[in-house]
Every structure is written in C-alpha cells, then in structure tokens.
Amino acid sequence: MSLANPDRLPAPRGGPGRPKPRVDRHARGREVVEAAVAVFTEKGLQTATMQDVADKAGMAKILIYRLYPSRQALIDALFGEALAQVEAAALRPWGGYGSGIATLIELGRARPALFRLLLKDARSGPETARWAATCDALLTGLAQPFVAPPPNATEPVRAACAHAARTLLPFIIETWIAGIDRSDGLTDAARIKWFGDIVRAWRSASREAIGLPEAPEPASLAASPPPRAS
Hints:
- The protein has ten helices and no strands.
- By secondary structure, the chain is mainly α.
- The protein has two domains: 22-69, Arc Repressor Mutant, subunit A (Orthogonal Bundle), CATH 1.10.10.60; 81-230, no CATH class.
C-alpha cells in the first residue's frame, strides 16, 4: 500500500497555498466586552484582571491585548458604549413627562450588568470614576432643557439653572437603577407616571424660584454634550 502523495494533502490553515483565515475583529471584540462585563460584575471593577477576562472569553491574553492594549482601554470601551446609547436616546423627540426615564430603563434592561457597573460600581476607583463623572454630566444635561435660562440671562441666573438641573441627578439615577432591577415595587406604568409628575412639579417650582419666564416645554432632552472621559 502506497502512502498518499504529500503534495495533495490539505495545507495547514494559513499555510502555503492558502490565505490565513480572516478574523472578525468586531465579533471578537464583542466577545471580549461581554466577558469583561461578566467578570467585572463577578469580581469587581477594581480587582478583576485581564487574565480573568481572557479566561472567561476562552482566549489567550495576548489576543485580548491586541484588541484592547490595556485594562483602561477595555474599561473605556465598555462605558463609552453605554454612554453613546444614552446620548443617542437624548436626541429623540421628547415624548412627554416620564418618557426620558422610560427610555433609560429600556436601555438598562437590554444590558443590565453593563449599566449597573456604570451607575453603581464606576464610582469606586480612579480608572472608572471619570466615567461616572461623565455619566453624571450627561444625565444632568437631560434635565437642563427644563430649566434652560433665556439667552440674555445674567450669570447668577445661569448658575441657579445649572444648580437646579444638578438637584435632579440623584433622583434620575435611583429611579433608573430601580427600574432596571424592578426593585421599587412599582409597575412600569406607575413608575413612569410618578417620575413624570415629580419632574413636572420640579420644573415648575425651579422656574418660579429662579424667576424664569414662561417657556414651552423642550422638544428634546439633548443639551450640549459633556466632555468625553479620556
């Protein structure tokens, strides 16, 4: 019995005569991101390592580093993606009181682990605190159209409007988290109405206290974008 002709044997993948298989970097990047979210949730943002992420993704660590050169780059990719979704949602036409929190909760429920990391754990260390600050600035920006100062407003009035917008921030965050987790005992419809009623009352009281003139309600919640974490 003769041996098979070695010239006719299949060439190894990527060997002579065959191109190397193309790697879908986007798909691989998604795998790494999902693994990172799971690992950071399980072990904590401050303690999980790139090796932990590689083990979870079932990849060699060197492949992770080819996609994300550092742990910081991976964290930036996670939270940059989350905040990009919030920014995009802010550009939609405003749907009335309660519509904004309904959209945020919808986003959060689609990626609950990612948004919990952003809203809860990102405040716990220097690698992530700046992303928490960027998130806070973006959410405060969603409140600003309700108390927007007129073009000819004085600096004290502008400062009062900015302060009023910041006072709504903790309420937005707590309601967003509770909506993601369904931990407040409210139905979705009741939560949206409750939140909307409070924002309506807050807007009226804030504008009266600052002395702002009557103005139409905002067409959208898009404000000037906050500076990106870098």
